[in-house]
Structure formats: C-alpha cells, structure tokens
Amino acid sequence: MTVVTRFAPSPTGFLHIGGARTALFNRLFAKHHGGRYLLRIEDTDKKRSTQEAIDAIYDALSWLGLECDGDPVSQSARRDRHAEIAQQLIDSGHAYRCYASPEELKEMRKQQKAAGQPMRYDGRWRDRDPSDAPAGIDPVIRLRAPQDGETVVEDIVQGQVTVANTQLDDMILLRSDGSPTYMLSVVVDDHDMGITHVLRGDDHLTNAFRQIQIFKALDWDAPIYGHVPLIHGPDGAKLSKRHGALGAEAYRDMGFLPEALRNYLLRLGWGHGDDEIISDEQAIEWFDGSGLGKAPARFDTAKLTALNTHYLKAADNARLVELITPGIEALAETPVDDIAGSRLAAGMESLKERAKTLVDLTESGALYAHQRPLKLEAKAEKILSDEAKSVLAAAQKALMELEPWTAESLETWARDYTEANGLKLGQLAQPLRAAVTGSNVSPPIFEVIAIFGRDETVSRIEDITKKA
Ligand code: GLU
Fold first, then answer.
1. 4, 6, 10: residue to mutate for ligand 1 pocket, most atoms within 8 A of CB
2. Stated pTM of the model
3. CA distance linking residue 300 with residue 197, whole number of Å
4. pLDDT reported for residue 468
5. Using one digit for the tens of pLDDT, what is the confidence trace for 149-201?
6. In angstroms, what CA-CA distances link 158 with 86, 97, 186, 221, 274?
7. Which residues, listed in sequence order, are joined to residue 7 by a DSSP beta bridge?
8. Nearest C-alpha to atom 7 of ligand 1 is from which residue?
9. Relative to the CA of 211, which ligand 1 atom is closest?
C-alpha cells in the first residue's frame, strides 16, 4: 500500500501555525513511507473562503518548504461528485430525504432542551414514506446512521476511542440548496484522493466518528487517523491571538528561517529521544507516526529563537545576503550595489554569529550599505569629540602606509600604535568605529575596516576629521 496523506486547510485566513505543523507532519509521514502528500483546499464555505487566503496558504507553504505532491485539489470544484455520492447513499438505502422545516426543528430542539434531553435530530423522516413529502419544501439528505452498536476510531495518537452510536444523530449530507456538508465532502474527497492516513488537530476527533459512519455506509475503507493535540500558549491555554502571532508568515516577518520553524514545529508534539536539532533528512527517517504525544505542546518563542540562532549560523552566507538585502535597502534607504553586496558577504560570517533572527542580521548588516557621508548616530557623535578626532587624524597617516590590510594586521597595528602613543586601545578603536560605521556598536571594528578597504576607511575618517 502506498501511503497517501493530505493537508486540508480551510482558506479563511492566514496559514495558522497549527496548520503548518499539520502540513509538516503529513508531509514527513508520507515521505517516511515513500508515499505522497497532497493538498486539498477546503473552500466550500464560499462566504468565508477568499482567493487571498488561498494565495497566503500557498505562499506560506512554499516558504516553509512544505509544497505538496501534484496539483492541489479544490473541494468546491468537486461539488457535483459530492451530490452524486449523496444520491448513491439514498439509492443504497443509507440516506434519506428529510423535509422537516427549520421552524419544526427549532421547536424539536426547544422541547428537547425543556425535557433536559440532548439536542439531536430525532429521525422523524428516517422511516417516513417519501410520498408524505410536503409540497414546496426542499429536503436535506441525511445519513441513515446506525442506531445501536458503537463507532470506533483506532487513532495513532489517541489510541482506541469509542462512541455509542446512540450519541450520534442522522447527520445532514446535502443541504436543501444542494450543497454538500463538510462531513460528506471530506469523506468523498479523502476516498477519491486515495488518502490512507490523516494526521490533523484533535478538534476533529469527533468528526472522525461521523466520517467513519459515512465511509462504512459507502463500503469504503476509512483512512487511519491520528489526532494531534492542539498547540497551546506558554500559559497552557489553547493558542490564541492574545499569545501573539498565529500565522506562519508572521514568523517569516519576524526573521525566522523556514528550517528553524520546521524544526521547531516538528518538536511541538512529537519527539525522538532528546534530539532537539533535527535535519529534514533525519525527520523523514524518524517520523513514522510513533512519538506523537497526547498532551498539548506549549509554544515557546524562546526555544524557536534558540533554534533560529543555530540555523542562522549554519546557513549559507550568500543565501543570507540575498534574504536580508531587501530589508537592508529599506533600512539604509539605498540600493545594495555590487560593492555593498560583496562587503556584506565578506562580513556575514561574523554578523551571523551575533544574530538571533534575520531582523537582527538586517540591522547589523546595514552598516555595509550606508553610503558616505554617513549619518552619525547620537552615541557615535558623542564619541567623536575634538580629542577623538585628533587621535583619528594622527592614526589616519599611519593607516595610509599599513601593509597588509587585513583584520589581524590592523588589530596588531592598533595595539602597538596605541601603546606607543600612551593611549588605551578603546581611545582609538571607538572613534574608528564611530567614524567608519556611524554607530557605537558593530562587529569587530578591525574586521569591518578590513572589509571596507583602505580607501573607503581613510575617506570616512577624513569626513570626520575635516569637519569643523
Ligand atoms: N478543513 C479543516 C480545517 O481546516 C480540516 C479538515 C480535515 O483535516 O479533515 O480545520
């Protein structure tokens, strides 16, 4: 049997972080088994589904590297097929038309409530002769659900979960306007797409009972389900807006790398011993459906940040330059030309050592894009006192002759030079930093000026020393 999984988001907003985890789990499970991972857009609720949300989901999945195999399926495009199956269920005696009016059902519920009974459809059209059908009422189609026995979900995560069939009423499959319900659409689509395994949030566990009943009525095999506990916030409550960002794309904007978020989401509700840093290859090798926890995992931004710090260090420098270039251009208000780009690339190794996110990296890397004359930050301005300027002016002459122009030789020179002139290293290094970067903080300054080169460094010093 080829394993086929799917991710089936409803496009009513951004890609929720929980949805991203569901997509990841399904993808890994399929890849582990050498199978396929499909995407189905559950866009039957036309009022709430938007093209914008569909695009946002594609965009976020592609950023996260969770693209599906084959073309995505649109659930709404399969409406006729869903209706066909509803009719098939009527023909086989597993479903029937119900002509109860909304007012009648409201009254039924009112009476059930007053009698302290559970509010469920009472099956009033289940055995009635269709010739009793009142004129002018468009019927719904309901499943003739089993009334005794039980429905069992053998769940990969939750274990065996059982519900008495008396607890489930005859659910609607097709509404009176002919539109299929979610339950019917999901079953028909999962069957037609050949889905063998479904990993999804445990908010769908109760739906699984109903879906299994439909599968049985159709004499189709239900997929194997695994209902994963929802993600909670650090306070233990279900993740919600008040915990901060909920959309996967917000984590991109906060400067997280997709591989860091993938690794983080993987560990959220699944474990492989004590392993924290897990590569994509290892994840595929290990993700066989075991190791999924029953307790809800708590989202912890500090842990995600720690992983991101790790992945930033491991990332290819040229890729990082490309990722932060648009941000630097916005920040420095100047295009990153070839010269700035190669300086940034040369400085990346030490920039990324100090960054937790791409936002940090953008801010610290911007120094290589700023053009002369520099706008000095207030703290840099303060460092550049008259005394500091004269230290710079004197040092500048020595710098003109220094060979070779490398970070090591610059540092050795600065140490010797300050010692010989009765200065502390900081009395030279700080003004140099302020003059060359316009700031009081930067990566190691001798590395920075090595990267800028002699001409640019001397010009920047002159910009300061020649200013009245
Ligand atoms: N469309 C459903 C949702 O976004 C998921 C349905 C399913 O996975 O069966 O919650």
1. 10
2. 0.94
3. 29
4. 53
5. 999 999 999 999 999 999 999 999 999 999 999 999 999 999 999 999 999 99
6. 30, 35, 21, 20, 22
7. 39
8. 8
9. 9
Rg for the chain, CA atoms, rounded? 32
Note whether 184 and 86 are within 8 A (CB).
Answer: yes
Please list every protein residue whose CB sits less than 6 Å from any atom of ligand 1: 8-10, 42, 186, 200, 204
User: Is 106 one of the annotated active-site residues of the chain?
Assistant: no
User: Do the first three CATH levels of 78-185 and 378-465 match, i.e. the same topology?
Assistant: no
Report the chain's terminal Cα–Cα distance, integer Å: 81
Distance 42 CA to ligand 1 centre (A): 7
Give the per-residue pLDDT at 128: 93
The confidence score (pLDDT) of residue 1 equals 87
pLDDT in tens, 114-131: 999 999 999 999 999 989
Number of neighbouring beta carbons within 10 Å of residue 375? 11
Residue 237 φ/ψ, nearest 5 degrees? -85, 155
Ligand 1: centre distance to CA 249 (Å): 19
Residue 141's beta-bridge partner residues? 97, 174
178-213: b (≥16 Cβ within 10 Å) or e: ebbbebbbbbbbbbebebbbbbbbbebbebbbbbbb
Catalytic: which of 241, 375, 389, 424? Answer: 241
Q: What percent of the chain has pLDDT over 90?
A: 92
d(CA 284, CA 262): 12
Q: Rounded mean pLDDT of 72-84?
A: 97
Q: 451 CA to middle of ligand 1, Å?
A: 52
What's 78-185's CATH class? alpha beta
Q: Show me where the domains of the chain are located.
A: 78-185, 315-371, 378-465
Q: Structure tokens of 198?
A: 């479904």
Q: Which two tokens stand for residue 241?
A: 């807006």
378-465 architecture in CATH?
A: Orthogonal Bundle (1.10)
The Cα 13–Cα 114 span in angstroms is 38
- Region 269-283: mean pLDDT is 96
